[in-house]
Automatic annotation (TrEMBL):
GO CC terms of this entry: nucleus
Lineage top rank: taxon: Eukaryota
Protein's name in the database: U6 small nuclear RNA (adenine-(43)-N(6))-methyltransferase
Family assignment from sequence similarity: Belongs to the methyltransferase superfamily. METTL16/RlmF family.
Bias kind Basic residues: ranges: 1-11
Taxonomic source organism: Vigna radiata var. radiata (Mung bean)
Start and end residues of each stretch annotated as Disordered: 1-22
Record-linked SUPFAM superfamilies: S-adenosyl-L-methionine-dependent methyltransferases (SSF53335)
MF term (GO), any: methyltransferase activity
Length: 442
């Protein structure tokens, strides 16, 4: 998709009230090269259109880009030593934006601290300390950032102290690792994608059947993650994690979507992300009262499905997922809580032109077609049409994952007499469809 198409799609998503967690345009490298002489030598024209770009296989170029983007967009001073995992700024910012959205959504009761300041825990903050730096500079959140390696602790502390305007918000905490394996460097990995538009789709997720056999022999055997690291008197609004994704060095090296270097300690853990996040889930059952939200990035969709099932099995009250797209790379955000969800407030009138909701926990026999049929008969029972009719509105139904459908409504004419009542009608439709199709509604 070319830039203009992406921008158009992005605009369309915003008009449709989808939340787009990204800068609206890729950065202009020519402009950055003028502003930052240190970046200039990495920028070159690329055929066939001779657009200015960098060599995405060159760790030094990517590190320099991250450095100048953090300075330009967030006034942050930042560096990491060669070979450490180099974060891409849009990708990491998207996780922060998603958290911001979760925290402000009031799905569960409000902030934990009495002064309503948000406090987060970044599991495996890395040498880059990227999430605490972004969260503190964008939103004034305070953080504990944990890690296990000497180089991560040393450089995370350096990156914090290089930014005195936020350094009082970030504590770097070493996790004691008594069985540390020898550190093996992974060759720099190839970043195949330019920084580009990122989109997300929020979903609440219902229970799925749990395939226990799929997780045999994948239990986590590493240093503590949350239990034993979080102190008895500590409370956080959220924890976040970009886990070691891979099960082996070979898997890390073979993955063409992976970028920006990374040592084995950063990228690999026995059992991969599935085992690592499973441990976070287990820890969360012991730390229910210490966190409002537990969250993690997930790199494989099959793991996402497994982890969602696992979560329902340990008695969480809510699960949310989101999709992050950067170029051709897909990742997912997974969030859960043990706090009881706040009841939805009473219906309010608004002039929204587009609205949507998800239906979760649909039984196998109920697909998009059945739901669409029910939508039609629901409206026709009130003498309304939701077919393509300019005086009326459209309803679309999409499958997100098996068992979860997204229902979207768009008012065709915002001056229609329906406009004030459109969202009310849609909320009524949601209630009707939930009671007809969903095995579990939150
Ligand atoms: C994929 S890197 C993420 C680094 C950084 N957060 C980022 O997004 O670029 C995973 C990090 O987790 C750290 N780590 C591994 N096991 C850990 C544990 N038990 N507790 C805390 N950090 C851990 C690694 O040292 C590494 O820095």
């Amino acid at each position: 998709m070319d830039g203009s198409k992406k921008r158009k799609k992005n605009k369309q998503q915003q008009e449709n009230n989808d939340i787009v967690y990204s800068e609206s345009q890729p950065e202009d490298f020519g402009h950055l090269a003028i502003l930052y002489p240190s970046f200039r030598s990495f920028v070159h024209p690329s055929p066939p259109h001779m657009r200015l770009t960098i060599d995405w296989t060159d760790f030094n170029a990517i590190r320099q880009l991250t450095c100048v983007l953090l300075h330009r967009r967030h006034t942050l001073t930042w560096w990491i030593p060669g070979g450490q995992l180099c974060p891409t700024v849009p990708n990491r910012s998207n996780y922060i934006h998603w958290l911001e959205h979760l925290l402000s959504s009031n799905i569960i009761p409000g902030t934990i601290s009495s002064d309503s300041k948000v406090r987060g825990f970044d599991i495996g903050t890395g040498a880059s300390c990227i999430y605490p730096l972004l969260g503190a500079s964008l939103h004034g959140w305070s953080f504990v950032g944990s890690d296990v390696t000497d180089v991560a602790i040393e450089w995370a502390e350096k990156n914090v102290s290089s930014n005195p305007h936020i350094s009082n918000l970030i504590e770097i905490r070493r996790v004691q690792d008594n069985n540390a394996p020898p550190c093996v460097e992974v060759e720099d990995l190839v970043n195949s994608d330019q920084i580009a538009l990122c989109k997300k789709t929020d979903m609440e997720v219902a229970p799925l059947p749990l395939d226990l056999h799929a997780c045999e022999n994948k239990s986590y055997r590493g240093p503590p993650i949350l239990v034993g690291v979080v102190r008895d008197d500590e409370k956080f609004d959220f924890c976040m994690c970009n886990p070691p994704f891979f099960e082996s060095l070979e898997e890390a090296g073979l993955n063409p979507k992976t970028a920006c270097g990374g040592t084995s300690r950063e990228m690999v853990c026995p059992g991969g992300e599935r085992a690592f996040i499973t441990r976070i889930i287990e820890d969360s059952t012991q730390l229910k009262q210490h966190f409002r939200w537990f969250t993690s990035m997930v790199g494989k969709k099959s793991n996402l499905k497994y982890l969602v099932s696992k979560l329902w099995g340990v008695g969480v009250s809510i699960v949310k997922t989101t999709e992050f797209v950067q170029g051709r790379t897909y990742q997912w955000g997974l969030a859960w809580s043990f706090l009881p969800p706040v009841q939805k407030s009473s219906i309010s009138l608004s002039n929204k032109k587009n609205t949507s909701f998800t239906l979760e926990g649909l039984q196998r026999q109920h697909g998009a077609i059945n739901v669409l049929e029910s939508v039609k008969s629901y409206f026709s029972s009130y003498g309304l049409s939701c077919s393509l009719n300019t005086s009326s509105f459209t309803v679309d139904v999409f499958q997100q994952i098996p068992g979860t459908l997204l229902v979207k409504g768009s008012l065709q004419d915002k001056d229609s007499p329906l406009s004030g009542a459109f969202s009310v009608i849609f909320q009524k439709l949601e209630e009707a469809l939930r009671s007809k199709f969903c095995t579990k509604s939150l």
